[in-house]
Design a protein that fits this description.
InterPro entries: BFD-like_2Fe2S-bd_dom_sf, FAD/NAD-bd_sf, FAD/NAD-binding_dom, Metab_Enz_Cyan_OpOx_G3PDH, Opine_Oxase_asu/HCN_bsu
Number of domains: 3
Number of strands: 22
Distance between the termini: 23 Å
Strand content: 15-25%
Helix content: 25-40%
Largest sheet: 8 strands, mixed
CATH topology of the largest domain: FAD/NAD(P)-binding domain
Organism: Marilutibacter alkalisoli
CATH class of the largest domain: Alpha Beta
Pfam family, one: Pyr_redox_2
GO molecular function, one term: oxidoreductase activity
Keywords: Oxidoreductase
Bound molecules: flavin-adenine dinucleotide
Length: 441
């Protein structure tokens, strides 16, 4: 990859532009570039790798990530790091990054925008010391001091194991992992794992790294207690309610696809559950002819699924369908694992019933659940309470409300998503809307 470092307006047309440099985006860029087309790869982060391959300040990136990144070198791919796509126009994306605002033109686009963590409100969840499980993992990798801290990990899904292993590696004392799924569900999940030997090996390796850490099934965090910070976590499990003193609580309930960019572009979405995902056909084509989607954005499927879908989307976007079609079987196998996972880690009703009227739901604007009940629309919620109008732009509270069955119908094809997708500098927005930057350069 080469770092793209020229002034605004000189950004070339890409044959294939990839948004997101996680496993899906990296695989897409590599596959497209292997056919000799001009490829651009954009990510909001400083380093490529996405969520699973986030750079770790102490331990670097895993070997698989190093291999994926090395494979991109020398392929002539333009790497636009720390560059956020903030809005769209009919034939280009509007990006803001260290070199300023710019229009990125493309013939074919691959959306590999990944997923975010699902956080659900419960009493005390906004106390300092409480984070998401993936959030705690990301903080640890960025150098957050953990040595000697006692951490409780809770929520649902395999991310709890991955996060616990990272926290332990950074010196935290992991007191226990509390999984909300029932023991029988976990047993059935484990019994099906031999169909995916790679996952079985991954699970075994994680278990080894977590030797001595208690793992409790059917166990739900019902409240976090403290004063100026977290002091105790209240848990409901097989032994009834118990309180555990700790320094940190890392609690996450799985992942939801990042669909906002696809939504803004007008791609059709589908709703297999409460959260949207980008609708794609067997060739990963969205409802827009020249836009493909791959990885978590089109349904939570995990790293292996992201890799194979990214490769397929890259080949297809480069106009090489035959190279993509040989990967279809691998994709089906990876997606079957995702279904297996979702079936056995479905959320227990208890988890959705924890927030009380005074529990904050919108953390950015400090809006409690009670202030939202009885409102008729998202517009009313925004106007009367400012819910969803803070820095996260509804990514946390909107997602939680949807999971709690408290979201409202939205009008229009873009489902209430408005530009800019992320808080953007006024200077960037001004540059992006001046007439001389509107056209193709
Ligand atoms: C917090 C967190 C931690 C995780 N940890 C693990 C783990 O330890 N092990 C594991 O197996 N799985 C983990 N996962 C699951 C992981 O998301 C996937 O398995 C895998 O990373 C999916 O790859 P992807 O390429 O689809 O998406 P991602 O890896 O999520 O990559 C998407 C990329 O798109 C970029 N992006 C999105 N929108 C824009 C935009 N508008 N402009 C510019 N860039 C944009 C993001 O910055 C991101 O780098 C984690 C997920 C999360 C949310």
């Amino acid at each position: 990859m080469r770092h793209y470092d020229v002034p605004d307006y000189d950004v070339p047309d890409y044959d294939v532009l990839v948004v997101g440099a996680g496993p899906a985006g990296l695989a897409a860029a590599r596959a497209a570039a292997s056919h000799g087309v001009r490829v651009g790869l954009v990510d909001a982060q400083l380093r490529a790798g996405g969520q699973v391959w986030r750079d770790d300040v102490r331990f670097g990136v895993p070997a698989a990530a190093r291999r994926a990144l090395a494979a991109l070198r020398g392929q002539g791919i333009d790497w636009l790091e720390r560059t956020e796509i903030v809005s769209v126009q009919p034939d280009c994306l509007l990006a803001d990054g260290p070199q300023g605002a710019r229009h990125l033109h493309y013939r074919q686009l691959v959306l590999a925008t990944g997923a975010r963590e699902l956080l659900l409100p419960f009493p005390g969840w906004t106390l300092p010391g409480v984070t998401g499980a993936g959030g705690a993992q990301a903080l640890a990798k960025q150098g957050w001091p953990l040595r000697g801290k006692s951490v409780l990990v809770a929520g649902s899904g395999p991310l709890l194991l991955a996060a616990s292993a990272t926290l332990r590696r950074h010196g935290a004392r992991v007191l226990g992992i509390h999984e909300q799924a029932a023991f029988d569900d976990l047993r059935r999940f484990a019994a099906g794992l031999p169909r995916w030997p790679g996952k079985l090996i991954q699970a075994a390796a994680l278990s080894l790294r977590l030797l001595g850490v208690p793992y409790r099934a059917g166990s739900v965090v019902v409240a976090a207690h403290g004063d100026d910070r977290l002091r105790e976590v209240e848990i409901e499990g097989a032994a009834g309610r118990t309180r555990v003193a700790c320094d940190q609580l890392a609690v996450g309930y799985g992942l939801v696809p990042n669909t906002e960019l696809a939504q803004l572009m007008g791609c059709r979405l589908e709703y297999p559950g409460p959260h949207p995902q980008v609708a794609v056909d067997a060739d990963l084509r969205t409802s827009l002819g020249n836009v493909f989607a791959a990885g978590e954005a089109c349904g939570i499927g995990g790293r292996d699924c992201a890799l194979v879908e990214g490769a397929m989307a890259g080949h297809l976007a480069a106009g090489k369908p035959e190279a993509a079609r040989v990967l279809r079987l691998r994709r089906r196998h990876a997606r079957a694992f995702a279904e297996h996972l979702h079936r056995h880690f479905a959320l227990d009703a208890r988890v959705l019933d924890l927030a009380t009227a005074d529990t904050p739901v919108c953390r950015c604007e400090d809006v409690p659940l009670g202030a939202l009940q009885g409102l008729a629309s998202m517009r009313e919620a925004k106007l009367l309470t400012r819910c969803g109008m803070g820095a996260c732009q509804g990514r946390i509270c909107g997602t939680a409300l949807r999971e709690l069955g408290l979201s409202w119908p939205t009008n229009g094809s873009v489902g209430g998503v408005r530009p800019p997708l992320f808080p953007a500098r006024l200077a960037a927005l001004a540059t992006l809307s001046t007439p001389e930057t509107q056209g193709r350069t």
